[in-house]
Amino acid sequence: MLYIVIPVFNRKNFTKECLLSLKRGTNQNFKVIVVDDGSTDGTAEMLREEFPEVEVLFGDGNLFWTASVNMGIKHALQQGADYVMTLNNDLEVAEGYIENTYKWMAQKPNAIIGALEMDAGTREPAFGGEIVDFKLNKVRHLLHELPKEKQVGLHAVSQLPGRGLLIPRAVFEKIGLLDQDRFPHYVADYDFTHTALRNGFELYVNYDAKLYTYPEESGERQNRQSKSLANFYKHLFDIKGGGNLRDFTRFTLKNCPTPYIPYYLANGYARRIFGYMLK
């Protein structure tokens, strides 16, 4: 059985639309767990009244993304889940999303599989997987490399985000849950997939499984739109800062091959500091 884990904090309208998109799907062979980390906007009431089939777990407002996801994953595994999918609430899935997930799950039962992200506004592809080259300090974006006719099926990658991330039970049994101590909010998904890859699990993006995202709604995007010294500080040091230097340092020390660490860190610090000012 596939369990879908969705961490939420307020923004109940996004949560509602996300769940409705799942209900419109051509395959309903899944269960949903929502982890509500202290919402104050009526999310719990909305879920109880409109989605009684959804199981809801509650946090106290201090879990952040990673601990919320881990709470849901642990519960799913206790219920006997064969696969767990992490899904953010600020997205919607295409009608064939689950159906095409099962299609490729059968072909690669032990692989971790991500989704093709589409911009919800333009309906154009926005993200299709990445391959990291630590030696050259480069990230290849497959969506920019693949011609249109090849943007189907599975494509191997070296890291994946947690938006629509399908994870077999065997992965948790071998490497454990996401690292919520080092990465409480951002980077935990990338760290988890790098760890899985080192432990022999394949990573793919499924170009047949499409989900629709709202990039302008991300906290980091809004931070950049309203630049100030206070927001610059949040960008670099806040737990929800997209350029958090602590998280980047921990990720590098844990995942980058030792010979390339100094250059990778220096380059990454520069991009996070100066990139905020330039973008």
From TrEMBL:
This is Family 2 glycosyl transferase. SUPFAM superfamilies: Nucleotide-diphospho-sugar transferases. It comes from Pontibacter korlensis. InterPro entries: Glyco_trans_2-like, Nucleotide-diphossugar_trans. Keywords: Transferase. Pfam families: Glycos_transf_2 (PF00535). GO terms for molecular function: transferase activity. It comes from the Bacteria. Signal peptide: none annotated. Gene3D superfamilies: Spore Coat Polysaccharide Biosynthesis Protein SpsA, Chain A (3.90.550.10). The keyword Transmembrane does not apply. Residues 4-115 form the Glycosyltransferase 2-like domain.
